[in-house]
Design goal:
Blueprint: E1 7-8, E2 13-15, E3 22-24, E4 39-45, E5 58-64, E6 70-77, E7 89-90, E8 98-104, E9 115-121, E10 127-130, E11 136-137, E12 143-146, H1 149-155, E13 177-182, E14 188-193, H2 194-198, E15 210-218, E16 225-232, E17 242-248, E18 256-260, E19 290-294, E20 299-306, E21 309-316, E22 319-326, E23 338-339, E24 346-350, E25 359-366, E26 371-379, E27 395-396, E28 402-407, E29 414-419, H3 421-424
Parallel strand pairs: 1-26
Antiparallel strand pairs: 2-29, 3-4, 4-5, 5-6, 7-8, 8-9, 9-10, 11-12, 12-13, 13-14, 15-16, 16-17, 17-18, 19-20, 20-21, 21-22, 23-24, 24-25, 25-26, 27-28, 28-29
């Protein structure tokens, strides 16, 4: 790992909570601070790591930052994983304090039996169940989008949910894909199917492959959606995954293909040993399309190959031909990137562990000056592998002055808050 391209910047880092339990939030793409900055969402478990199962429970709740960082539990769930938690997120577009997350279905039956989403009024404890497990809620909180976590458990176990008797998952069915869920009425409908995607600018490598969708994100005005369409003939080896970055309207119309990483796969040879692939080799692949996120209503930041070069790239939704390299020769490693919610000058990200030191970096890139600040280096136990690893997954506070990460550098899985106010001004 080349540290010479970064400016070392002292950034105060402190752990949140000290109740003897382990805490995590999961993904990088949602702020776990509420609108007031006084509640910090997190899942809580009594162990740093465990083999996931259909009956393994995690608490759903938040740290009360105005009350000595006391953890307040609001529910439990058995639909979670170490990478994304239970898709816990605030419903910012609603008056009051509401969050949404996934749970095991008991009272509602939707397109994916056994799974549902739950909305909780954090102030009153009142809960409403909806018939679709969600991956992301729109910023206006009027709708959410959901995908099939049973399929993900087969294709990409790291971000799927366990079941006692998982159903069969056809290669590219017409009744599976992205579901639109009305958060006022609970009405849901399939807006784009895997069959439809397999027929949208098809390539030969799709013909014998199983298909799935991940990384669904909605733009700030709630008017456009991005997602990754993935397919493979060998789910047990992530280096065989193929990727496309696609956008659409929330109703599934106006599909646009922004990038396609279809490429030869010598790994499909009969004598290839997937066990020889390192934990993070997939994330460091030169063909990877990963971690896309809206910069604003039109621009999308993503780690991707474009015209034979892999970089952090900035795409324009309405003009796929206009692609800008971000941080050339500086941001040379895949990471979980997000722009400051108040100033697009600042791009927050992390790195995967160095193969020799097992250290991962937290970095802040200055878009105006092309300078990257190293905020910290965090050790990760190499015993943790794909399913139970702990990526930093940095997330912004709403005012852009602090960030929150998950980390295991103290041999516990915990949340940490890093102050960046002296850098961002």
């Amino acid at each position: 790992m080349d540290h010479t391209k970064y400016i070392s910047s002292i950034a105060p880092c402190r752990r949140v909570g000290h109740d003897g339990m382990h805490h995590f939030f999961g993904y990088y793409n949602k702020s776990n601070w509420d609108k007031t900055g006084t509640r910090l969402l997190a899942n809580r478990v009594p162990f740093m790591t465990a083999q996931l199962g259909a009956d393994l429970s995690a608490e759903v709740g938040y740290f009360d930052l105005a009350d000595n960082e006391k953890y307040v539990s609001i529910d439990t769930t058995t639909t979670w994983n170490w990478q994304m938690g239970c898709q816990l997120q605030w419903l910012d577009g609603r008056d009051g304090s509401y969050c949404i997350y996934n749970t095991r279905a008991t009272t509602v039956i939707g397109p994916y039996p056994g799974f549902q989403s739950t909305v909780c009024n954090v102030d009153t404890g009142e809960k409403t169940h909806f018939p679709v497990p969600i991956t992301v809620a729109a910023p206006n909180s009027r709708y959410a989008l959901g995908i099939n976590y049973s399929r993900l458990f087969i294709t990409h176990e790291t971000i799927g949910y366990w079941e006692h008797n998982p159903p069969a998952v056809p290669m590219a069915p017409a009744d599976d894909g992205i579901y639109h869920l009305d958060l006022d009425t609970g009405a849901y409908r399939l807006v784009v199917s895997l069959l439809q995607l397999s027929q949208f600018h098809p390539v030969q490598s799709m013909e014998k492959a199983i298909h799935w969708i991940s990384h669904v994100e909605i733009n700030p005005s709630s008017s456009r959606v991005l997602f990754l369409h993935r397919w493979t003939e060998r789910v047990e080896d992530e280096t065989c995954f193929l990727h496309r970055l696609i956008t659409m309207d929330p109703d599934g119309s106006n599909l646009r293909l922004l990038e396609d990483s279809d490429h030869p796969l010598p790994q499909l040879a009969a004598d290839f040993d997937p066990n020889a692939v390192g934990t993070f080799d997939y994330e460091k692949s030169e063909y990877q399309i990963s971690h896309p996120l809206w910069c604003d209503d039109q621009r999308i930041i993503v780690w991707s190959p474009h015209q034979g070069q892999i970089h952090y790239h900035l795409y324009r939704d309405e003009d796929a031909a206009t692609v800008q390299i971000v941080g050339r020769d500086i941001l040379t490693e895949n990471g979980h990137m997000t722009y400051s919610p108040v100033n697009k000058r600042w791009l927050l990200s992390d790195t995967y562990p160095d193969s020799e030191t097992n250290e991962r970096l937290l970095i802040l890139f200055d878009m105006d000056n092309g300078v990257c600040h190293k905020l910290g280096s965090f050790y990760t136990d190499p015993v943790l592998k794909k399913v139970n690893r702990c990526d930093l997954h940095p997330r912004w506070r709403r005012d852009g002055r602090q960030v929150c990460i998950d980390s295991v550098h103290e041999s516990e899985r915990q949340l940490y808050v890093i102050d960046v106010s002296h850098i961002v001004g």
